Every structure is written in structure tokens, then in C-alpha cells.
């Protein structure tokens, strides 16, 4: 499924739970520029594995917004809803190697232990009405994030993540790791709200004998209420008719040097690629919606 043999393959992987908003555009632009600045490939993946959260028509809105903003991806779009057999193969490997287990614990039970799985299911390994969890090995995860700096996550504090929900739907942690490996992703650029999930994903990469990826976690944009802009918080969709204005706003959030005003969208992206500086990206975790 690899597009080429480039040393850099990045991706943008939105879920179709709503159209793109300013925060998701920021991630798309940053991941695009980081890939293009390194003469790498930039792939598009639609993470459509959670039907109850998806909005009808959102996938097409996302695709159209990327096109309107000049963000052209390489190769075909990967749709997670078409990849069940790949996720099942990974789950069977983990279960056979005793790196995953069936869990019937309720949320109330987990709340009593601060969300950390008490390992009461580890002796059972019985399917039934149960989720499947990854058994986290007892060692810490350390990596250097390209913006947020050195990170260390203690295994005793992160808990065992769900890989397949008891309703039969595949969990994000499993799908993202399997698909990143299948697409030979080398670099991930995404919001800092997913920084904690990186520890789970590195543990899962190790359990499946996969390559570890380089990470860059961006600050997220927060509204007046202090909450991250998201589809769940009803962040307004970006206006495709003001694509150039949107791109300029995102570049300001990313701390990049402003491009000349007379450039069109294609020229603007080319200029931004040539002048892309990751060391100019703010290292804080949140940016005010009004700060640009």
C-alpha cells in the first residue's frame, strides 16, 4: 500500500463525525507542510470505524475542504471501514501471544480504580460479552516529541487500552497502529490532545513488532470557554469560500513567517513549504481562538 520509497510518509486522518473546523485544518496544514518540506508523501485516511459518531455526508465535506484549500494528497484514500480483516489479524496475533485479553469490566468498576484496569480479567480469556484490551508491559515509554520535547509515560499509570469494544467496533488505538504500519507512515503530526495516546500506540507497535514512528504534537486551539475546538463541542465548519484567509490564519497559529499577500493558494502553500520551520511552532498545549 506504500505510495513510494520515500524516507518520509505522513498522513492526515480525520474521522467523518463532522466537517473540518479551524483546529482540524491546522492539523491538516501542518502535516501537509511537514511532509512536503521533506519531499515526502502525504496520505489521506478516513477513520470511519465508529458509525454512531459519524455524520452523513461529512466525509465528502472533508474531502472537498481539503481540495478547496489546495491540500492534495498522494495515492488513494484509505477508508478504515474496509479494513476489518487487517484489524482481526492483529487482534488474533495479540491474543495468541497473550498480549491481549478479554475484559468484561464495566466503566463503574474501572472508575473505582482511577481508570486503571485491575487485571481481574487476565485469568479468564473468555470471549462472551467482552471487550478486548492490550496488556501493557511493565516498562516505561520514552520518546522525544519534535515540538513538545522529551516524554516519559510510566506503564503503571496509563492502563490497558481497549482494542475492540464489546459492541464489536474496533477501537481507535488498534486501527491507527495497524493502518500506520500498513501505509508505512514514518511521521505523525497531530494535536497535543493525542499525546497521551502515543504511549499506548508505542506499546502496541512493540507488541506487533512494528516500527516506532516519529511524532510531532501541535498545540490545540481552544475557544472562549477554554475547551478544544472539536466536532463534539460544535466548532463551526470552516468556510471553503475563504480558503486563503483560513490558510493564513492557520499559519499564524503555527508561528510561521507570513507569506506575501499577493500569492494565490497554490503559491501560498509552495511558499509556506519552502519556509516551513517546526522550531517556530508554539510548544504550549493550547492556543486561544483569538490569539491569531
How would you characterize the overall build of this protein?
- The chain is an alpha/beta fold and 292 residues long.
- Helix content is 32%, strand content 17%.
- The protein has 9 helices and 12 strands.
- It has helices spanning 22-37, 58-68, 84-96, 107-111, 155-158, 172-182, 195-207, 243-253, 265-274, and strands at 9-12, 41-46, 78-79, 100-103, 131-134, 141-145, 149-153, 162-164, 187-191, 214-218, 220-222, 286-288.
- It has a 3-stranded parallel β-sheet with strand order 1-2-3.
- Helix 1 (22-37) packs across helix 8, helix 1 (22-37) packs across helix 9 and helix 6 (172-182) packs across helix 7.
- The two termini are 39 Å apart.
- Residues 1-5 have low confidence and may be disordered.
Beta-strand residue percentage: 15-25%
Number of helices: 9
**Poorly predicted ranges:** 1-5
- What shape does the CA trace take? globular
Q: Strand order within the widest sheet?
A: 1-2-3
Total strand segments: 12
| SSE pattern, N- to C-terminal | EHEHEHEHEEEHEHEHEEHHE
Spatial extent as radius of gyration: 20 Å
Determine the structural class based on helices, strands and strand pairing.
Answer: alpha/beta
Keywords:
single chain; 292 residues; alpha/beta; 3-stranded antiparallel beta sheet; 12 strands; 32% helix; globular
Describe the secondary structure blueprint for this structure.
Layout: E1 9-12, H1 22-37, E2 41-46, H2 58-68, E3 78-79, H3 84-96, E4 100-103, H4 107-111, E5 131-134, E6 141-145, E7 149-153, H5 155-158, E8 162-164, H6 172-182, E9 187-191, H7 195-207, E10 214-218, E11 220-222, H8 243-253, H9 265-274, E12 286-288
Parallel strand pairs: 1-2, 2-3, 9-10, 11-12
Antiparallel strand pairs: 4-5, 5-8, 6-7
Helix pairs in contact: 1-8, 1-9, 6-7
